[in-house]
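Re-running FdhF/YdeP family oxidoreductase to confirm reproducibility after the cluster update. Everything else is unchanged from the original entry.
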Amino acid sequence: MSSRRRVVPGVHPYDGPAGGWGALKATAIAVRTQMDALDAPATLLRTNQPDGFDCPGCAWPDKEHKSTFQFCENGAKAVTWEATSKRVTAEFLAANTVTSLLARSDFELEGYGRLTQPLAYDKASDTLRPVSWEAAFARIGAILRTLQPHEVEFYTSGRASNEAAFLFQLFAREYGTNNFPDCSNMCHESTSVGLPQSIGIGKGTVSLDDFDKTELVISIGHNPGTNHPRMMGTLHELARRGVPIIVFNPLKERALERFADPQNVIEMATYSSTNIASTYFQVKAGGDAAALKGIAKALLQLEAEQGKVLDRAFIDEHTLGFTDFAQDLQATQWQDIERESGLTRGDLERVAAAYAKSHATIITYGMGITQHNKGTANVRLIADLLLMRGNIGKPGAGICPLRGHSNVQGNRTVGITEKPSPQFLANLQRVFGFTPPQEHGHDAVKALQAMIEGESKALLCLGGNFAVAMPDSERAFPAMRGLDLSVHIGTKLNRSHLLVAKETIILPCLGRTELDLQETGRQSITVEDSMSMVHASSGKLKPGSPELRSEPAIVAGMAMATLTESKINWLALVADYDRIRDLIEQTIPGFDHYNQRIRHPGGFRMPLPPTERIWPTPTGKAMFSVFDGVHENQQVEGHEVMRLVTLRSHDQYNTTIYAMDDRYRGVFGRRDVLFMNEQDMAELGFEHGDRVDIRSALPGHHQRLDDITLVAYNIAPGTVAAYYPEANVLVPLDYLDKESGTPSYKSAPVRLTLRSKEIRALTALR
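Result of re-run:
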């Protein structure tokens, strides 16, 4: 840091590695502030164990259970946040109006603790009041029966289990709609659309075993230390055995620089750490496609000079479209690649040389790839790069999209999609005896647009924080208030619950850590991780309230109250989740012997034909694609235009904020910051600590976020970054990937204006 920088309260360097003693301290604080000290150790030790519960955090898979400790810092935060001893009581709600609660921060709202009973909004008192389950279900059913199916949106969070999600889609489709906005629409929908076009399936192709065999990892657009922290153990192992890890990311992220494994006795005892990235390239926000095309172009040049760089036999036997792909690369100019990526030709040629040397390469990527105007094309471009050297369908190689929530991939597998295949719908009709709707429904953006325009009148949320997670908050929040009905299934209060409709009902559910007892006894649920492994999860804790119900039971209750002539025996399904899984097996390929296989430790893997070099594309081949030009987002001219990246703090998971710190980036006790390159600051007349107003630079748009503190940071020139979800207001609803509908949270053009040179004190934020 420059010695001339002003002192900004709550902003100072963090010198430690990711993980290490800092992670242990943060875990201890989470336990101390949320749980009974006697309950916490046993609860954490059950996390990700064969007879325990799956971590409600990220979707990184579990390795063989060789360690007693199968959780990370952020996993511990997720568990303790759910297993908290704090409760939202009827007395608390009676004393606090919805209007007053809306003035609290998102951190404060969830920090009040677990919901304990069904609630309904009372307009006269502006409060949430307890209501019986029977009354809640009856009111939901009565309203839904007055609406047309296309007027209702069924939203799903990625934390919902396979069983709950399957029942939810069954309820919606028997009701008559394919309106399924879900959290995947906001993150990896570009993967779900792009990869089937390239390799025939919208999932990654690697397993943890492949990481044991790989010779090179290229990491693009993700921050594993915060967003998928259990991955750090894998990267740590790779780095220690000398496998190159080449990173492309606009910000320098501590976990990608160095990491101390809390389970490594030597590192902990000596306060040492392991360097993770062998090479770190700070690509501009929105410059990934240019960088990928540069690597591919350099690879073609190596082939021309040396030969035997491309896997010609693989390309000839297994792919189509290579000639057009290669011609486009040859026509792409290096000056355009360098300008858009912010990297030099030499940088990208070095990556190409390392790639050419490796016999088995894995490319991992996150939302830094998917959340752009051409996010789907970005995903295809990564697949193209792997196909050039036959790096799909062989040991130690493949494509690895890094999913967020722990069952976001499983939700899609069991039918949460607005675009169901004809075969899936035919299977539903065969198994359940009703005719499901054939027309495609709404994704998340289309659902919100329909709500804004008054075409959708009800929103049923299986978890999540829909309005806060969506872009364009200034339009999303009023749309929630204009609904006839909003229903939220959840464990804690959040802002979306408080954006009350004409009628709002909140239904409290069991958490994943809690014991689920139904008529036939203790139940387990299942989830699918980001490497397509399906395994069981069984909570052990006493439920936070005797009135809590499981997600499957709540979905069934709503369905029975709505579908008075349903063909489905909902009560029987809730009594024994094995029966739900039997029906999933009958409906969806790949779930053969479902109940038997989940009883084996580790579960089973869903079919992934590309791992056997079988390509379920229309041509039966893997397909190369052509990325038009080098720009992955709408271009807005002007030297003062910055590209805004929205990102999570380290004490955050999606919209859930565990604390107000972002330790690795050196921010403590505040979230009102905009990270900016110090040279960009100087050129635009700003300095560290200035307070600025941020405006959308997109023509015809007027989104704004005011009074944000500038923080000098090691970030690519032309790029700024602010916290999600606060900065979502700056992303217009129509600024998205038109192929997948994914909002472009990772490169929104903005302009900054000085608001004040006066440094804001931390006390002013409270």
